Amino acid sequence: MPEEPTTPTDPASSTAPAPSARHTELLEAAYGYALEHGLADLSLRPLATAIGSSPRVLMFLFGNKDGLVRALLARARRDELAFLDRLGEHPGPGEDDHRLADTVEHVWSWLAAAEHRPLLRLWAEAYARSLVEPDGAWAGFARATVDDWLAVLASHQPARERDGAAGAADRTVALAVLRGALLDLLATDDQVRTTDAVRRQAALLRGGL
């Protein structure tokens, strides 16, 4: 007998009820599936079979496929923000003038870790899709990601530089190098070369090259 849905969720409503335990359970299961299989060819029927549910229940809980994709992207962003929050709490041991460079190297060590590849592949897919489908379920994902990362990089700059044009340029370059190196790493698995590139950029930020 198919399971009965419990609590509907209306993502557009500010008064939507808190997610039910079943909603949370299925979202976590679907997130695990997305980390393994990606979102590009996501189909409700094989997803539902894999996580022990049914397309009808997923439609009830998430509204439609776009609603489920939005929920999965929000779930991926929570993992990203959790890392950024931890980074903000532990600024690193470097001198104030070198905190941005230290942060770049610390962030890269996390990005380059093999255990984070599934999350980062999902992030890269969502980032690219949000650029070519700006009005769909992916809307705003790339912009929000850029804003999130620039904010945490800014928090690791000396106060005297943070609000100036040079400070904005420095953190923009840092983010561009991290993002570019990450995409390169995901494409080639060449951790040595990409790590050398990130370390060189960190040295430039310190004024060491």
Strand content: under 5%
> Helix and strand string, N-terminal first?
HHHHHHHHHH
In whole angstroms, the N-to-C terminal distance is 67 Å
The structural domain count equals 2
**Largest sheet properties:** none
* Category from helices, strands and their pairing: mainly alpha
Count the beta strands.
0
How would you state the average pLDDT, rounded? 85
How much helix is in the residues? 55-70%
Q: From the alpha-carbon coordinates, what is the Rg to the nearest angstrom?
A: 20 Å
Name the shape in a single word: elongated
* SS field, number of helical segments: 10
Poorly predicted regions: 1-15
Present the secondary structure layout.
Layout: H1 21-37, H2 44-51, H3 55-62, H4 65-89, H5 99-111, H6 117-132, H7 141-154, H8 159-162, H9 165-188, H10 191-206
GO molecular function, one term: DNA-binding transcription factor activity
DNA-binding region: 43-62
Domain HTH tetR-type: 20-80
